[in-house]
Design brief:
Its main location: cytoplasm. By secondary structure, the chain is of the alpha+beta class. It is built from eight helices and eight strands.
């Protein structure tokens, strides 16, 4: 198995761990998708993807419909996706994806977490190059051969296809998202969920005490309402 498989295995239990956080995240994704492409999922591929993800975390349909309706209101604040970078203790690179309606607040908060936990708040581009920006899709495994599917999807950008207990996962570069989404839909293959991740190119093994230092910072960052994802180069 490749890096995507190992990365997914390491993060599996942590992702979507708090249901309230997952719903907040989906709500922001809906607002950004609607503001970008309108409220009709048929004509808005990004919104279709978010609705699929809402089902994956069992978000009630009425919550989704309410969020779409709210997003069409011109008075609803739009969220801007902002990336923050820095280092945790022991040389671990940290990449923070946020969705914020107040950049000054978010910058101040993220900087304070790094400072309080003996980290270093970095400049743009300081650690982003250490991660591969990928997209992923999860589809049902029934009736599908992962190896055969991988061969068929290589021409559309797929780099890694593997099966786990939740279905078949497809990983590709970030830029291949639309192409693969369109191909899966044209084949009438159900997309259970999809998204984007940043996979570290190299990871660093730490001692138990050092891991605790890094996790203290990560947990602090993840508690912030503006934070969508935190990625790091610490070996899981």
């Amino acid at each position: 198995m490749g890096r995507a498989f190992e990365f997914r295995k390491g993060r599996k239990m942590k992702r979507w761990s708090a249901m309230a956080k997952a719903f907040t995240r989906i709500g922001k994704d809906i607002v950004m998708a609607v503001k970008e492409g309108g409220p009709n999922p048929e004509a808005n591929s990004r919104l279709r993807a978010v609705i699929q993800n809402s089902k994956a975390v069992n978000m009630p349909k009425e919550n989704v419909e309410r969020a779409i309706k709210k997003a069409t209101d011109k008075d609803t604040a739009n969220y801007k996706e902002v990336l923050f970078e820095g280092y945790a203790p022991h040389g671990i690179a940290i990449l923070v994806e946020t969705a914020t309606d107040n950049n000054n607040r978010t910058v101040a908060n993220i900087r304070s977490y790094f400072n309080k936990c003996n980290g270093t708040f970095g400049t743009q581009g300081s650690v982003e190059f250490m991660f591969d920006h990928t997209c992923n899709f999860r589809i049902p495994a029934e009736g599908i051969d992962p190896e055969e599917l991988e061969l068929e999807l290589i021409d559309f950008g797929a780099e890694e296809v593997f099966e786990d207990e939740d279905g078949i996962l497809i990983y590709a570069p970030f830029t291949s998202f639309g192409t693969i989404q369109k191909e899966l839909e044209s084949r009438k293959i159900e997309i259970l969920s999809s998204g984007f991740e940043r996979i570290p190119q190299i990871t660093k093994k730490l001692s138990e005490d050092e891991v605790a230092d890094v996790e203290k910072l990560i947990e602090k960052i993840e508690e912030d309402d503006d934070v969508m994802n935190v990625y790091h180069t610490m070996e899981e």
